[in-house]
Design brief:
The chain is of the alpha/beta class. It is 40% helix and 14% strand. The chain has 12 helices and 8 strands. Strands 1-2-3-4-5-6-7-8 form an 8-stranded parallel beta barrel, surrounded by 5 helices. Helix 1 links the parallel strand 1 and strand 2. 41% of the residues are buried. Bound molecules: 2-phosphoglycolic acid.
Length: 256
């Protein structure tokens, strides 16, 4: 399975920044075989999609969020129908949406189902808020509950179309300051939690299905620590925030 390297640009970049960043990434990843996806702000999806179309590149495009309805009187929202054809991936339930915009597991579940209905590949984010020294309690509480509730009613056929991003909230970098202010989780910690998530998915679906579900890690990933995650069994890639805004840094991550 190809490793996934996803770059979430959050609410950063001007159109000029976004253009330079995209072109640099396209040029920098020519010879690599990973699944590289960028998630620019909504307003840059059209111009970035045009840039990608002009190049023979493996670079893929995704949206940072979407609403669950197809259309309607929902001022300010973007529907899966609008994203279809423009990009292939969509981040659903990022912790910044859950905690700043009060998105619930029920809404996340609805968004997931609608993203799938429109043929988009969702990246479902789950993760506990507080760091704990006891790995077992991580999987017993919040993160398992997010997983179970977010996936309610999702069929075994559809679950393998979803990428799960385990992002402990405490490990995500602060949006200001230099790379590395976040408290990245250790590879060992991530491996244990992802292993437990896969076991839980095995109970919800089947062990065979669970083996085929792609689970990635996010939280202060940078060129200096990416190998710590991608070399471990069961970790299928990384979701990168801050470090995805610096072309050389992001390309180094892709090349790792
Ligand atoms: P970070 O963000 O890499 O800046 O910690 C990751 C994320 O929020 O997806």
């Amino acid at each position: 399975m190809k490793k996934i390297i996803a770059g979430n640009w959050k609410m950063f970049t001007t159109l000029a920044d976004a253009t330079v960043l995209t072109e640099s990434i396209i040029n920098g990843i020519n010879d690599i075989d990973s699944e590289v996806i960028i998630f620019p702000p909504f307003v840059w999806l059209v111009p970035i999609s045009d840039i990608i179309k002009k190049h023979p590149t493996r670079l893929k495009l995704g949206a940072q969020n979407m609403f669950s309805k197809e259309s309607g009187a929902f001022t300010g929202e973007i529907s899966p129908k609008m994203l279809k054809g423009l990009c292939n991936y969509v981040i659903i339930g990022h912790s910044e949406r859950r905690y700043n915009f009060h998105e619930t597991d029920t809404l996340v579940n609805d968004k997931l189902k609608n993203a799938l209905a429109f043929g988009l590949t969702p990246i479902l984010c789950i993760g506990e808020q507080k760091k704990t020294t006891n790995n077992e309690s991580v999987t017993e509480r919040e993160v398992i509950s997010h997983l179970t509730k977010s996936l309610e009613g999702i069929s075994a056929e559809n679950i393998t179309k979803i990428i799960i991003a385990y992002e402990p909230v405490w490990a995500i970098s602060k949006p200001v300051g230099p790379i590395g202010v976040g408290d990245a989780a250790t590879g060992e910690y991530v491996e244990i939690v992802i292993n437990d998530l896969r076991k839980h998915l095995g109970k919800l679906y089947s062990e065979e299905t669970a083996k085929n579900i792609r689970i990635i890690y996010g939280g202060s990933v940078k060129a200096a620590n990416v190998k710590e995650y991608i070399t471990r069994k069961g970790i299928d890639g990384v979701l990168v925030g801050t470090a995805s805004l610096k072309p050389e840094e992001f390309i180094k991550i892709c090349k790792s």
